[in-house]
Amino acid sequence: MIEMIDKQLRKDMQDFKPGDDVRVNMRSGEDKKRIQSFEGLVIGIKGEGLNKTFTVRKYSFGVGVEKVFSLHSPLIDSVEILKRGKVRRAKLYYMRKRYGKAARIKEKREY
Amino acid sequence: MIQGLLGKKIKMTRWFDSDGKSVPVTLISCGPCYIIDKSEDSLTIGYNEVKEKKLSKPEAGVLKKKNLPPLKYIKKIKWLGKKEDQPEIGSKLYADAFQVGEMIDVQGTSKGKGFAGVVKRWGFRGGPATHGAKFHRAPGSVGASSFPSRTFPGMRMAGRKGGTNTTVQGLKVVELDKKESVIAVMGSVPGPNSGMVFIKRSVKAKKGKK
Lengths: 111, 210
Fold this sequence. Notes:
- By secondary structure, chain A is mostly beta strands.
- Helices cover 5% and strands 41% of the residues of chain A.
- Chain A has a single domain (3-92), classed as SH3 type barrels (Roll).
- Chain B is globular.
- In chain B, the strands form three sheets. Chain B has a six-stranded antiparallel barrel.
- Chain B folds into two domains: 4-111 and 167-201, Translation factors (Elongation Factor Tu (Ef-tu), domain 3, Beta Barrel), CATH 2.40.30; 113-141 and 155-161, no CATH class.
- Chain A binds chain B through residues 2-5, 8, 27, 32, 49-51, 70, 72-75, and chain B through 10, 13-16, 19-20, 22, 27, 175-177, 179-180, 182, 184.
């Protein structure tokens, strides 16, 4: 691996998976100091190396909202895992057709 | 200062700049370029070490005489600066011949696209797909009738596209790795991954602006 690419990779990123509920804290504003958070379900992780992105979906005021984050972006302050989900698929695009009770995901409990 | 270096396109990826903005970059491994010969205002450099049997005997002979490894690509390149500053024959040039923030041009052989129609090759608009249209991606008229009774030379038509020598001008060096001799260049570069490219200082970059 080329060193300069390796330097940009975020190694502090927690290991979250599709099906997990996360809170993504983004640095925003002119001085990149204000923290803006986006909370929702991870429905997919895509790409490789620096191109890796993940999609977070949530319902906001009755409307489905999806946001794609660049996993290695320095603008991501942190990603908190709120709940681990138990899913059988790598991409949860079927969640786009569901809302309310149908949009529940089983929680993965670690014993 | 040498005008340019030979290198190999590694791949495209992205780069996060100091503002955290994502920038599309191409990684180019440049060098080591061996100096084979030099004259008043130019250096002859060689790149890409190969097995000796890959070269013809006269090619290999020239390099052997100068105690250099067998090199596949050889190019004569302008030397910008005083003659006294020229490096010795046999020494190597690496990516640090360039600087971060510098503007460069990259020359390479573009990817072959085969026999392409007029829409892909020349950017003709074509016609509508539906609403009863009978004109889709055809070239249309190639000239008038009784006068001149011929098609003018240079008329844009379907044919082979790509696989030609192409230069992309005004690319910025975003990052430089001295150890691995790799530069990251903002934007795309002609040719496939691991294709040979010639990287040279930009001809159009404004003087005094870095």
